Amino acid sequence: MNRHAALTPRSDLRCAMPSTTGLRIDHAHAALASLREEERRLERLGLAEALRRCREQLRYWEFLSALFALPSAPRSRVPRTHGNR
Q: Disulfide check for 65: which of 3, 28, 37, 53 has CB 3.0–4.6 Å away?
């Protein structure tokens, strides 16, 4: 199995990310839910290497979820000065 392959269809990074913030957050939460379920299954089966990979992917999706949840920064405007016209 490819070391970087997604463990679940929901966590596959080859899929396009949704275009809106809300849908991105939903996508990340779905990926996390699927990976947590897979983590429980791998623990029951005692598959240590697959469990390690699953936890790596969980950390990545937790990062993405937190990143998507950050408030959007307003577009800053450059103040007009004598040099900016």
A: 28
